[in-house]
Design goal:
It is a single chain. The protein has helices spanning about 1-40, 40-45, 50-85, 85-90, 100-130, 145-180, 185-215, 220-230, 235-265. With about 270 residues, the chain is mostly helical. The two termini are about 25 Å apart. The model is unreliable at about 130-145 (pLDDT under 50).
């Protein structure tokens, strides 16, 4: 059932996002061509007609790069928000568990977010490239990249993916809590977002204070740790830090997922 949900989510979101991506790419191409014309035909570049055409085009291109991020965030968050509203009567009646619904929304959101980033990079490259002298040089992967670099890069990529999942899961949790007030769902979700952010900031400060107090009261332990790190291999220390950050992020994502699933399963209010 998850595959069918994913197919439906990608098809529905693609109807909105793909035309926006295409428009941004076309505008970037037109702006790049305008730069090419200005470099090859200086007399045309100095004319007022060319300036009247190129300046609004460049402004529209820059605006399109902002629009694709805003549209991506709005469309992807709206998909989960509507699940807790009228659309929930249809979607939650399907033979699919809340876990599958959350997974389908989250996978779709992460995939489209990465596509949005790639499209923005492509558009920015076209805007900054000198199209009169484009050349491609493929990197040589002879033996320059070691196993340590590949492993650390993989862990960092997983950590960034976990952060992206946590970003969307936090919004999902706010929507799930705000859904307890069906008549004011949007307002309650917005209030919940700011309240949870404030509470988490307070908890973070308290944890840092407690951690600092614990370290200051156990100076012998701190000295032992510092001595161990001093003689530890740099590669091992890098792995430990990267894995620790990844585990912390995954645990946070799991907490957000579990609480969101609890509200959808036990406290769902579609009235």
């Amino acid at each position: 059932m998850l595959s069918k949900l994913l197919k439906y989510e990608f098809r529905t979101t693609g109807r909105t996002l793909l035309p926006i991506y295409l428009g941004a790419i076309v505008l970037s191409l037109l702006s790049a061509l305008a730069h090419l014309i200005s470099n090859t035909m200086q007399s045309l570049a100095d004319s007022s007609l060319f300036l009247i055409f190129s300046i609004p085009l460049e402004l529209a291109t820059a605006l399109s790069l902002v629009i694709i991020f805003v549209a991506c965030l709005f469309v992807l968050l709206q998909r989960f928000y509507r699940l807790l509203g009228d659309q929930g009567y249809l979607m939650l009646s399907l033979p699919a568990s809340p876990t599958e619904h959350i997974a389908a929304k989250l996978i779709t959101a992460c995939c489209w977010s990465m596509v949005t980033l790639l499209v923005s990079i492509l558009c920015g490259a076209m805007l900054n490239a000198d199209m009169s002298s484009i050349s491609f040089s493929w990197p040589r992967l002879g033996g320059t990249v070691g196993l340590h670099t590949v492993c650390v890069g993989l862990i960092v990529a997983l950590f960034l993916l976990s952060l992206l999942c946590g970003f969307y899961l936090f919004f999902y949790l706010c929507f799930a809590i705000g859904g307890q007030w069906a008549q004011q769902r949007l307002l309650a979700s917005i209030v919940c977002y700011f309240v949870l952010n404030f509470v988490l900031q307070i908890l973070s400060v308290l944890l840092l204070v407690l951690f600092g107090f614990a370290l200051s009261s156990n100076t012998d332990l701190v000295l032992q740790l510092a001595q161990s790190l001093k003689y530890m291999n740099t590669s091992v220390a890098t792995y430990l830090v990267a894995v620790a950050l990844l585990l912390a992020s995954v645990i946070w994502d799991a907490i957000l997922w579990a609480v969101t699933q609890f509200f959808i399963t036990k406290r769902l209010n579609l009235a």
